[in-house]
Amino acid sequence: MTELLTSDLTCLPWPFPAGDETFRYAVNVEPAPRYTPTLAGGWGRHVVDLGLEYVPMMQLKREILAKDPGRVQILPHMIPACWDVMLYLMRQMADSYPETMQLTGQGNRYHWRNALLDIDQHFDMGDLATLPEDPLTFIGCQVPDDILLLTERHDQLWFDAAIVTFAADWSIKFGVGMNFNEIHRPVPGLTSGGITSRAQQFMRHLTTDRIFRRANWTFSAVGSPHRDTSLETRPEWEDDIPNLIADGDYGRVQLRIELEHLIRLPLTGALVFNIHTYMAPLSDIATIPAWAEQLADIITELPADIATYKGIDSYRHHAARWLRTQSSAPAST
User: What Pfam families has UniProt attached to this entry (predicted)?
Assistant: First the structure.
Protein backbone atom coordinates (compact mmCIF):
# COMPACT_ATOMS: atom_id res chain seq x y z
CA MET A 1 0.00 0.00 0.00
CA THR A 2 1.18 3.54 -0.76
CA GLU A 3 3.24 5.05 2.06
CA LEU A 4 2.52 8.66 2.98
CA LEU A 5 5.13 11.22 3.90
CA THR A 6 6.02 12.23 7.45
CA SER A 7 4.10 15.04 9.10
CA ASP A 8 4.58 18.69 8.18
CA LEU A 9 3.94 20.86 11.23
CA THR A 10 4.16 24.04 9.15
CA CYS A 11 0.65 23.46 7.76
CA LEU A 12 -0.85 21.54 10.69
CA PRO A 13 -4.21 23.03 11.82
CA TRP A 14 -3.42 23.09 15.54
CA PRO A 15 -6.88 22.52 17.11
CA PHE A 16 -6.43 24.27 20.46
CA PRO A 17 -6.72 28.04 20.91
CA ALA A 18 -3.78 29.65 22.71
CA GLY A 19 -4.26 29.52 26.46
CA ASP A 20 -6.78 26.67 26.47
CA GLU A 21 -6.01 23.93 28.99
CA THR A 22 -9.29 22.01 28.74
CA PHE A 23 -11.37 20.43 25.98
CA ARG A 24 -15.11 19.80 25.74
CA TYR A 25 -17.23 19.03 22.70
CA ALA A 26 -18.92 22.16 21.39
CA VAL A 27 -20.23 23.80 18.21
CA ASN A 28 -16.79 25.31 17.60
CA VAL A 29 -17.22 26.72 14.11
CA GLU A 30 -15.59 29.70 12.43
CA PRO A 31 -15.71 31.26 8.95
CA ALA A 32 -13.59 29.80 6.15
CA PRO A 33 -11.38 30.05 4.23
CA ARG A 34 -9.13 32.08 6.47
CA TYR A 35 -5.39 31.90 6.93
CA THR A 36 -4.49 31.13 10.54
CA PRO A 37 -0.88 31.48 11.72
CA THR A 38 0.51 28.97 14.22
CA LEU A 39 3.75 28.53 16.14
CA ALA A 40 4.99 26.30 13.30
CA GLY A 41 3.58 28.08 10.24
CA GLY A 42 -0.03 28.50 9.22
CA TRP A 43 -3.06 26.88 7.62
CA GLY A 44 -6.57 27.50 6.28
CA ARG A 45 -5.88 29.60 3.20
CA HIS A 46 -7.92 27.27 0.95
CA VAL A 47 -11.04 25.15 1.41
CA VAL A 48 -9.22 22.29 -0.34
CA ASP A 49 -5.69 21.93 1.03
CA LEU A 50 -3.63 19.73 -1.29
CA GLY A 51 -0.67 19.55 1.09
CA LEU A 52 2.70 17.93 0.45
CA GLU A 53 1.22 14.44 0.23
CA TYR A 54 -1.32 15.11 -2.51
CA VAL A 55 -0.26 12.61 -5.19
CA PRO A 56 0.53 9.67 -2.85
CA MET A 57 -2.66 10.38 -0.89
CA MET A 58 -4.73 10.17 -4.07
CA GLN A 59 -2.96 6.90 -4.94
CA LEU A 60 -3.82 5.61 -1.48
CA LYS A 61 -7.48 6.53 -1.94
CA ARG A 62 -7.60 4.58 -5.19
CA GLU A 63 -5.97 1.57 -3.53
CA ILE A 64 -8.48 1.61 -0.67
CA LEU A 65 -11.44 1.88 -3.06
CA ALA A 66 -10.10 -0.87 -5.30
CA LYS A 67 -9.91 -3.15 -2.27
CA ASP A 68 -13.23 -1.99 -0.79
CA PRO A 69 -15.62 -0.21 -3.22
CA GLY A 70 -18.17 0.03 -0.42
CA ARG A 71 -16.32 3.08 0.92
CA VAL A 72 -18.49 4.98 -1.58
CA GLN A 73 -22.18 5.03 -0.66
CA ILE A 74 -24.76 6.97 -2.69
CA LEU A 75 -28.50 6.70 -2.13
CA PRO A 76 -30.31 7.04 -5.49
CA HIS A 77 -31.83 10.47 -4.85
CA MET A 78 -28.35 11.93 -4.18
CA ILE A 79 -26.96 11.76 -7.72
CA PRO A 80 -27.78 15.47 -8.45
CA ALA A 81 -25.97 16.48 -5.24
CA CYS A 82 -22.94 14.43 -6.31
CA TRP A 83 -22.74 16.42 -9.56
CA ASP A 84 -23.18 19.59 -7.54
CA VAL A 85 -20.32 18.85 -5.13
CA MET A 86 -18.07 17.77 -7.99
CA LEU A 87 -18.50 21.07 -9.82
CA TYR A 88 -18.21 23.06 -6.59
CA LEU A 89 -14.91 21.45 -5.56
CA MET A 90 -13.51 21.77 -9.08
CA ARG A 91 -14.17 25.52 -8.89
CA GLN A 92 -12.55 25.72 -5.47
CA MET A 93 -9.40 23.96 -6.70
CA ALA A 94 -9.24 25.91 -9.97
CA ASP A 95 -9.42 29.17 -7.99
CA SER A 96 -6.85 28.03 -5.41
CA TYR A 97 -4.37 26.26 -7.72
CA PRO A 98 -4.75 27.81 -11.20
CA GLU A 99 -1.26 26.76 -12.27
CA THR A 100 -2.18 23.06 -12.12
CA MET A 101 -5.99 22.90 -12.18
CA GLN A 102 -8.40 24.53 -14.61
CA LEU A 103 -12.16 24.38 -15.14
CA THR A 104 -13.66 25.93 -18.25
CA GLY A 105 -17.11 25.84 -19.82
CA GLN A 106 -20.61 26.94 -19.01
CA GLY A 107 -24.15 25.63 -19.01
CA ASN A 108 -23.90 21.84 -18.99
CA ARG A 109 -20.59 21.41 -20.86
CA TYR A 110 -17.26 21.62 -19.04
CA HIS A 111 -13.59 20.82 -19.38
CA TRP A 112 -11.62 19.88 -16.27
CA ARG A 113 -7.84 19.57 -16.10
CA ASN A 114 -5.85 18.35 -13.11
CA ALA A 115 -2.20 18.36 -14.17
CA LEU A 116 -0.98 16.86 -10.88
CA LEU A 117 -2.92 13.66 -11.56
CA ASP A 118 -2.72 13.85 -15.36
CA ILE A 119 -6.52 14.16 -15.69
CA ASP A 120 -8.02 15.91 -18.72
CA GLN A 121 -11.79 15.38 -18.84
CA HIS A 122 -14.62 16.87 -20.87
CA PHE A 123 -18.03 16.23 -19.31
CA ASP A 124 -21.68 17.20 -19.52
CA MET A 125 -23.33 17.95 -16.19
CA GLY A 126 -25.80 15.22 -15.35
CA ASP A 127 -24.62 12.80 -18.04
CA LEU A 128 -22.89 9.85 -16.35
CA ALA A 129 -21.68 8.58 -19.71
CA THR A 130 -19.28 11.56 -19.94
CA LEU A 131 -17.35 10.59 -16.80
CA PRO A 132 -15.27 7.47 -16.16
CA GLU A 133 -17.16 6.88 -12.89
CA ASP A 134 -19.81 8.49 -10.72
CA PRO A 135 -19.14 12.20 -9.98
CA LEU A 136 -18.63 11.70 -6.22
CA THR A 137 -15.90 9.11 -6.77
CA PHE A 138 -14.37 11.15 -9.58
CA ILE A 139 -13.93 14.27 -7.45
CA GLY A 140 -13.45 12.36 -4.20
CA CYS A 141 -10.27 10.82 -5.61
CA GLN A 142 -8.92 14.28 -6.45
CA VAL A 143 -9.29 15.91 -3.03
CA PRO A 144 -7.55 14.79 0.19
CA ASP A 145 -10.83 15.10 2.09
CA ASP A 146 -13.48 12.53 2.84
CA ILE A 147 -16.80 13.91 1.55
CA LEU A 148 -20.16 13.44 3.27
CA LEU A 149 -23.38 14.79 1.76
CA LEU A 150 -26.42 15.56 3.89
CA THR A 151 -30.01 16.35 2.99
CA GLU A 152 -32.93 17.65 5.03
CA ARG A 153 -36.23 15.92 5.62
CA HIS A 154 -38.61 15.58 8.57
CA ASP A 155 -36.75 18.41 10.37
CA GLN A 156 -33.57 16.32 10.43
CA LEU A 157 -30.29 16.11 8.53
CA TRP A 158 -29.53 12.74 6.95
CA PHE A 159 -26.21 11.29 5.73
CA ASP A 160 -27.29 10.06 2.33
CA ALA A 161 -24.05 9.90 0.29
CA ALA A 162 -20.35 9.80 1.04
CA ILE A 163 -16.89 8.77 -0.03
CA VAL A 164 -14.92 7.90 3.11
CA THR A 165 -11.48 6.30 2.88
CA PHE A 166 -9.93 7.69 6.08
CA ALA A 167 -12.52 6.92 8.77
CA ALA A 168 -11.44 6.93 12.42
CA ASP A 169 -12.96 3.79 13.97
CA TRP A 170 -16.30 3.98 12.16
CA SER A 171 -17.85 2.69 8.95
CA ILE A 172 -19.70 4.65 6.27
CA LYS A 173 -21.47 1.44 5.27
CA PHE A 174 -23.12 1.44 8.67
CA GLY A 175 -23.64 5.21 8.88
CA VAL A 176 -25.19 5.99 5.49
CA GLY A 177 -28.91 6.62 5.76
CA MET A 178 -28.71 7.61 9.44
CA ASN A 179 -29.78 11.00 10.69
CA PHE A 180 -27.53 13.51 12.41
CA ASN A 181 -28.58 12.54 15.93
CA GLU A 182 -28.10 8.82 15.31
CA ILE A 183 -24.60 9.35 13.92
CA HIS A 184 -23.46 11.40 16.91
CA ARG A 185 -25.27 9.57 19.72
CA PRO A 186 -22.11 7.72 20.91
CA VAL A 187 -20.20 10.98 21.54
CA PRO A 188 -20.29 11.76 25.30
CA GLY A 189 -22.45 14.76 26.17
CA LEU A 190 -23.05 15.74 22.56
CA THR A 191 -26.73 14.82 22.35
CA SER A 192 -27.67 14.98 26.03
CA GLY A 193 -26.02 18.39 26.34
CA GLY A 194 -27.95 19.81 23.40
CA ILE A 195 -24.83 20.26 21.28
CA THR A 196 -26.10 17.96 18.51
CA SER A 197 -29.35 19.87 18.16
CA ARG A 198 -27.53 23.23 18.13
CA ALA A 199 -25.07 21.97 15.52
CA GLN A 200 -27.90 20.66 13.39
CA GLN A 201 -29.77 23.96 13.61
CA PHE A 202 -26.62 25.82 12.63
CA MET A 203 -26.07 23.58 9.61
CA ARG A 204 -29.69 23.78 8.49
CA HIS A 205 -29.41 27.57 8.39
CA LEU A 206 -26.24 27.61 6.31
CA THR A 207 -26.45 29.67 3.12
CA THR A 208 -24.61 29.16 -0.14
CA ASP A 209 -22.53 32.32 0.25
CA ARG A 210 -20.75 31.35 3.49
CA ILE A 211 -18.42 28.48 4.40
CA PHE A 212 -17.55 27.44 7.93
CA ARG A 213 -14.97 25.12 9.44
CA ARG A 214 -14.17 23.35 12.69
CA ALA A 215 -11.35 21.15 13.95
CA ASN A 216 -11.66 17.90 15.86
CA TRP A 217 -8.87 15.76 17.29
CA THR A 218 -7.96 12.46 18.86
CA PHE A 219 -4.99 10.11 19.04
CA SER A 220 -4.80 7.68 16.16
CA ALA A 221 -5.34 4.00 16.80
CA VAL A 222 -2.16 3.24 14.87
CA GLY A 223 1.39 4.29 15.52
CA SER A 224 1.98 5.39 11.92
CA PRO A 225 0.81 8.11 9.51
CA HIS A 226 -1.87 5.80 8.08
CA ARG A 227 -5.20 7.59 8.06
CA ASP A 228 -7.44 4.59 7.39
CA THR A 229 -8.48 3.26 10.78
CA SER A 230 -11.97 2.28 9.69
CA LEU A 231 -13.90 -0.58 11.25
CA GLU A 232 -13.33 -2.51 8.03
CA THR A 233 -9.56 -2.58 8.63
CA ARG A 234 -9.63 -3.02 12.41
CA PRO A 235 -7.81 -6.38 12.40
CA GLU A 236 -4.86 -4.60 10.76
CA TRP A 237 -4.41 -1.94 13.44
CA GLU A 238 -6.12 -2.93 16.69
CA ASP A 239 -2.88 -4.18 18.29
CA ASP A 240 -0.77 -1.14 17.37
CA ILE A 241 -1.50 1.09 20.35
CA PRO A 242 -1.29 -1.73 22.95
CA ASN A 243 2.13 -2.62 21.54
CA LEU A 244 3.27 1.02 21.66
CA ILE A 245 2.11 1.32 25.26
CA ALA A 246 3.88 -1.90 26.22
CA ASP A 247 7.08 -0.55 24.68
CA GLY A 248 6.63 2.95 26.14
CA ASP A 249 7.12 4.29 22.62
CA TYR A 250 4.82 7.32 22.98
CA GLY A 251 6.68 9.34 20.38
CA ARG A 252 5.09 7.20 17.67
CA VAL A 253 1.55 7.88 18.90
CA GLN A 254 -0.12 10.07 16.30
CA LEU A 255 -2.13 13.21 16.99
CA ARG A 256 -4.98 12.96 14.48
CA ILE A 257 -6.60 16.28 13.56
CA GLU A 258 -9.73 16.36 11.41
CA LEU A 259 -10.42 19.70 9.75
CA GLU A 260 -14.06 19.84 8.70
CA HIS A 261 -15.67 22.29 6.26
CA LEU A 262 -19.43 22.91 6.25
CA ILE A 263 -20.82 24.02 2.88
CA ARG A 264 -24.26 24.59 1.36
CA LEU A 265 -24.15 23.59 -2.32
CA PRO A 266 -25.47 26.18 -4.81
CA LEU A 267 -27.45 23.99 -7.22
CA THR A 268 -29.18 21.40 -5.04
CA GLY A 269 -28.99 22.97 -1.57
CA ALA A 270 -27.44 19.79 -0.17
CA LEU A 271 -24.95 20.17 2.68
CA VAL A 272 -21.32 19.12 2.40
CA PHE A 273 -19.34 17.90 5.40
CA ASN A 274 -15.71 17.61 4.25
CA ILE A 275 -13.10 16.01 6.51
CA HIS A 276 -9.37 16.47 5.88
CA THR A 277 -7.27 14.31 8.19
CA TYR A 278 -3.84 15.51 9.34
CA MET A 279 -1.42 13.32 11.30
CA ALA A 280 1.53 14.27 13.49
CA PRO A 281 3.48 11.97 15.82
CA LEU A 282 3.99 13.14 19.38
CA SER A 283 7.74 13.11 18.67
CA ASP A 284 7.14 16.00 16.24
CA ILE A 285 4.71 17.80 18.56
CA ALA A 286 7.36 17.67 21.30
CA THR A 287 9.67 19.83 19.17
CA ILE A 288 7.33 22.77 19.86
CA PRO A 289 7.34 23.03 23.68
CA ALA A 290 4.21 25.24 23.90
CA TRP A 291 2.20 22.71 21.90
CA ALA A 292 3.55 19.78 23.89
CA GLU A 293 2.69 21.43 27.22
CA GLN A 294 -0.78 22.45 26.03
CA LEU A 295 -1.60 18.99 24.69
CA ALA A 296 -0.31 17.40 27.89
CA ASP A 297 -2.52 19.71 29.99
CA ILE A 298 -5.59 18.97 27.87
CA ILE A 299 -5.31 15.20 27.83
CA THR A 300 -4.53 15.15 31.57
CA GLU A 301 -7.64 17.19 32.44
CA LEU A 302 -9.92 15.45 29.93
CA PRO A 303 -13.03 13.91 31.57
CA ALA A 304 -12.93 10.12 31.68
CA ASP A 305 -15.95 9.64 29.43
CA ILE A 306 -14.44 11.76 26.63
CA ALA A 307 -11.03 10.12 27.08
CA THR A 308 -12.67 6.70 26.87
CA TYR A 309 -14.62 7.66 23.76
CA LYS A 310 -11.40 8.88 22.14
CA GLY A 311 -9.71 5.62 23.13
CA ILE A 312 -6.90 7.26 25.08
CA ASP A 313 -7.96 6.86 28.73
CA SER A 314 -5.63 3.93 29.44
CA TYR A 315 -2.46 5.75 28.40
CA ARG A 316 -3.12 9.50 28.28
CA HIS A 317 -1.34 10.27 31.57
CA HIS A 318 1.75 8.35 30.42
CA ALA A 319 1.64 10.22 27.09
CA ALA A 320 1.30 13.54 28.93
CA ARG A 321 4.35 12.80 31.09
CA TRP A 322 6.31 11.79 27.99
CA LEU A 323 5.36 15.05 26.24
CA ARG A 324 6.41 17.17 29.23
CA THR A 325 9.68 15.32 29.60
CA GLN A 326 10.55 15.59 25.91
CA SER A 327 9.54 19.21 25.53
CA SER A 328 11.66 20.27 28.51
CA ALA A 329 14.72 18.21 27.54
CA PRO A 330 17.72 20.21 26.31
CA ALA A 331 18.21 20.15 22.55
CA SER A 332 20.96 17.85 21.35
CA THR A 333 23.99 19.43 19.67
Answer: HODM_asu-like
